[in-house]
Specification:
Elements: E1 13-14, E2 23-30, H1 33-44, E3 47-50, E4 58-63, E5 66-73, E6 84-89, H2 93-102, E7 106-114, E8 118-124, E9 130-136, E10 143-144, E11 151-158, H3 161-172, E12 175-178, E13 185-191, E14 194-201, E15 213-219, H4 223-232, E16 236-244, E17 247-253, E18 259-264
Parallel strand pairs: 2-5, 6-9, 11-14, 15-18
Antiparallel strand pairs: 1-10, 2-6, 3-4, 4-5, 7-8, 8-9, 11-15, 12-13, 13-14, 16-17, 17-18
């Protein structure tokens, strides 16, 4: 689970600058900002500072002073699913948004400027899975990666990997590496030969109340302890800790219903 970005520096930081198609940010839109910050602050050790307010109240989550994620406030009249959304890097968000439309996807928000930080849009693929598009304009300093409390992988859960992979390949130029298996439908998306995300086709096992969706994996020091802590903090465990292709992992839900995975990667 590696990402195509700037060269790694010391202490798990990387230089800004992401190759197009690389997941470069994750953001969560919620109803209760204060309670959500309390949950993730306790779980991952995050601190928070105000961020761009174009879509309403928004904070950036910091770990050891480095930005790792964003949390925003849903408008009271918007009854949208509370979910973590990965943002995929683009050199031209307007052109990428247009390609999304041409390839059967939908652009729900933007493109619009996010203060001095960059330009963004929120879109969905032809199966309905929501993702963001991000064009960076400001150098906001090195980002932290590969340490507990940071996003480490993004995976699309959908009906069938092959058809939707063609959409993402057309929009972002991914290389595809399918798993050759009769009973496991999975494609790894690569940028410049490096794995950056996965697509898992699960057929009718896609949750009816959620539909196809992206799920973010966060690195933790101990998956079992983290899963127990999620419950203590008011969330719950969907899939208990178990060994996976990514390492020991569990799928959990925060108190507002946002699903995510926690993982301890090997090596």
């Amino acid at each position: 689970m590696t990402e195509a970005r700037g060269p790694a520096g010391r202490n798990g930081t990387t230089d800004a600058g992401y190759t197009p198609g690389t997941p470069c940010w994750v953001s969560l839109m919620v109803h209760g900002m204060a309670a959500t910050q309390e949950f993730y602050g306790a779980l991952f050790g995050w601190e928070f500072q105000p961020g761009p307010q174009q879509l309403g109240p928004y904070v950036r989550a910091l770990l050891d002073g480095h930005e790792v994620a964003g949390i925003g406030q849903l408008p009271p009249d918007r009854h949208l699913p509370v979910a973590w959304t990965p943002y995929l890097a683009s050199e031209d968000v307007d052109a990428t948004a247009e390609t999304v439309r041409h390839r059967g996807g939908t652009v729900g928000v933007g493109p619009l400027d996010a203060a001095e930080a960059g330009r963004m849009a929120i879109a969905s693929d032809p199966m309905g899975a929501v993702f963001g598009i991000w064009q960076e304009s400001a150098h906001l300093g090195p980002r932290l990666t590969g340490v507990p409390g940071t996003p480490t992988w993004n995976e699309l859960l959908t009906y069938d990997s092959t058809s939707v992979a063609k959409f993402y390949e057309a929009v972002f130029g991914y290389e595809e590496e399918p798993v050759v298996s009769a009973d496991f439908d999975y494609i790894t998306l690569k940028v410049e030969g490096r794995p950056v995300a996965g697509i898992h086709g699960v057929g009718n096992a896609v949750p009816r109340d959620r539909g196809p969706h992206w799920i973010t994996y966060f690195q933790v020091a101990d998956v079992d302890e983290t899963a127990a802590q999620v419950t203590d903090l008011g969330g719950h465990v969907l899939r208990p800790p178990a060994e996976s292709a990514h390492g020991r992992a569990a799928t959990v839900v925060d108190p507002e219903g946002a699903m995510f995975s926690v993982v301890t990667t090997s090596g």
